[in-house]
Amino acid sequence: MRPLLWPAVLLLGVAAVEAPAASAQQPPGPPASPAPATTPAPPSVAGRVLTLEEAIAIALETQPQIQARLSDFAAAQFRVDQAMAPLLPQIAGSWTAARAQNVVGSPSTGSSTGTEVARTRTFWTDTTLARVSGSQLLFDFGKTFAAIDVARKNAEATLEDLELQRQLITQAVKEAYTNINFGGRLIRVQLQALERAELNLKSARGFFEVGTRPKSDVTRAEVDVANARLAVIQARNAERVARVALNTAMGIAADTPTQVRDNLFYQKAEFDRRQLFAEALARRPEYKQDQLRVDAAAAFVRQTLRNFFPDVTAGGFYGAQRADMNEVWELNIGLTWSIFDGGNRIARYREARAAVEAARARVRARELDISREVEQAQLTLAETEERIQAAQALVASAQENFRLAQGRFDAGVGTILELTDAQLALTQAQTTEAQALADNRIAVARLERALGRR
Questions:
Q1: What does DSSP assign to residue 43?
Q2: Residue 123's pLDDT is what?
Q3: What is the pLDDT of residues 399-448, one digit of tens each?
Q4: Where are the beta strands (DSSP E) in 23-116?
Q5: Among candidates 370, 451, 445, 450, which has minimal Cα distance to 56?
Q6: Bridge partners for 321 per DSSP
Q7: 3-state secondary structure 392-418
Q8: Could you tell me the pLDDT band of residue 40, with boundaries at 50, 70 and 90?
Q9: What is this structure's pTM?
Q10: Which of 199, 185, 190, 83 has the alpha carbon at shortest distance from 142?
Q11: How many Å separate Cα 94 from the centre of its chain?
């Protein structure tokens, strides 16, 4: 038990009511992270072209999930203050006033017959009692400090939950931002396909009108135009859905006309494969939470073990009573010790020991999960880089193939089927390239999340 500084403790007992977190006598707690007094107003994004960094900053500032975690952390800090309260003096005041009716009976022999006649007298008594009482825990074999350790570790775990939510929101913003750009790229690809299909339809109609091509070529070209228009509609809807996802991740209205900067291009990501797992263990908030839960469980074991020992408390009161307010006071020292409680404390101690083993097992399981996530993210990133190279080569070949098919058709030696197939192959190749670029961006974001980065 730490020594008690009586003058300082008495002063701090009053100050703790106003500002418990500022008390100089408190054990050091987790790093302070101020909870916002009010929810910040959503920023105006209309008419702006947001960069990815700006979108992330908006999300970290306005996302309600983060605001909720900030409040959870503030509540956890106050639970630490609650656990500290038994170390400070406990002072209470009381005032009681009572009025009681009293009836007193006495025999009387004043009658002519000589018989006794009972007489009664009624009167009222007023009782007043006012007192101020106080108590101070002197020694409890470290039970209170163990409870403070448990509350502090739980607060630190709540702080890691705040960081976890920030990382998840950041990842959601990155993926939605990429999907908007992917949707925009698909719109451009499908509009180009529609433009090519309309040109083919115009050529087919011209050839049909001069009698060099059959009606079936015109019909096939009309089908291609209809399919291209349908693909444009689907691409535009995909972009709208991605924008709704981004707005939701940023914590703003879903129908906000958010505009983003195009970042759908290949940029090689540099990671040191030898350090990735160690970095993930050092950064991942889930892993830190699991370790803190082990520490909290161990502190709870110490608390339950010390429940087998007594508490020593000093107390007293000062006041006055009756109508004349006679002075009354008392000083005392008490020892409280539960000798036998039916085995409850033993069972709680064993439960706490089992909880420690379970928490340690979860730490080992988390290590395996993190290792798997990091390795899978690396493999996915490498696969997307290879796909980008292959897709870019495919686009170049498809463009050349379409150019040749277009020339043969315009020269009258190629068929509409050959031209349609070349056009479809080009559209698919451009879509594949866009998909590979988007998947690469998302793979980088997921690897950063697996490493605990924002």
A1: P
A2: 74
A3: 999 999 988 888 878 888 888 889 899 999 999 999 999 999 999 999 99
A4: 49-50, 90-108
A5: 445
A6: 129, 326
A7: HHHHHHHHHHHHHHHHHHHHCCCCHHH
A8: low
A9: 0.76
A10: 83
A11: 45
Tell which residue, 148, 144, 146, 21, has the closest CA to residue 90: 144
Instruction: Return the closest-CA partner of residue 450 out of 165, 159, 171.
Output: 171
For residues 235 and 133, what is the distance between their CA atoms, to the nearest angstrom? 75
Bridge partners of residue 327, in order along the sequence: 320
Q: Are 303 and 150 in contact (CB under 8 A)?
A: yes
Are the C-beta atoms of 426 and 230 separated by less than 8 Å? no
- Highest mean pLDDT of the ranges 119-123, 174-178, 204-208: 174-178
Query: In the numeric block, which tokens belong to residue 8?
Result: 């300082």
Which pLDDT tens digit goes with each residue over 260-281? 999 888 888 888 888 899 999 9
Angle at 258 between CA 253 and CA 263, to 5 degrees: 135
The answer on pLDDT for 339 being more than 70 is yes
371 token code pair: 């290792």
Q: Are strands 117-139 and 90-108 parallel, antiparallel or unpaired?
A: antiparallel
Measure CA of the first residue to CA of the last residue in the chain; give whole Å.
Answer: 42
Where residue 55 falls (left for φ over 0; alpha for ψ -120 to 50; beta otherwise) is alpha
SS3 270: coil
> Could you give the percent of the chain with pLDDT greater than 70?
86
Angle between helices 215-250 and 416-450 (to 10 degrees): 10
CA dist 20 → 14, 138, 315 (Å): 9, 21, 24
List beta partners, residue 121. Answer: 104
Average pLDDT over residues 385-403: 93
The length of the chain in residues reads: 454
> What's residue 343's pLDDT?
85
C-alpha 155/C-alpha 79 separation (Å) is: 8
Tell the residue number behind the tokens 């690396």, with chain if given: 378
Q: By the 8 A CB rule, do 436 and 389 touch?
A: no
How far, in Å, CA of 359 to CA of 366, rounded?
Answer: 10
CA dist., res. 161 & res. 154, Å (int) = 10
The predicted structure's pLDDT at residue 427: 92
Neighbour tally for 245: CB within 10 Å: 18
Provide the token pair at 56. Answer: 């992330």
Can you tell me whether residue 56 is helix, strand or coil? helix
What is the bridge-based pairing of β-strands 49-50 and 259-260? Answer: parallel
Residue type, 411: A
Tokens matching residue 183: 């949707």
Q: Within 13 Å and on the Cβ side, how many CA atoms surround 379?
A: 6
Structural contact between residues 178 and 442, judged by C-beta atoms closer than 8 angstroms: yes
